[in-house]
């Protein structure tokens, strides 16, 4: 269980960065602006909100 709390934030950061990269690629192509917005905000949500929450609340599970 302790290893999952260390690996889960790393996975969310990688998925968030991947979605941001997909969003930037979609913006570069310029085909679908709504898809860019979905990718970018989902990636930023994972990076800025979910990852710190996992670190904060996950550390309380180790006690």
From TrEMBL:
<feature type="transmembrane region" description="Helical">
    <location>
        <begin position="39"/>
        <end position="58"/>
    </location>
</feature>
<keyword id="KW-0812">Transmembrane</keyword>
<keyword id="KW-1133">Transmembrane helix</keyword>
<feature type="transmembrane region" description="Helical">
    <location>
        <begin position="6"/>
        <end position="27"/>
    </location>
</feature>
<keyword id="KW-0472">Membrane</keyword>
<protein>
    <recommendedName>
        <fullName>NADH dehydrogenase subunit 1</fullName>
    </recommendedName>
</protein>
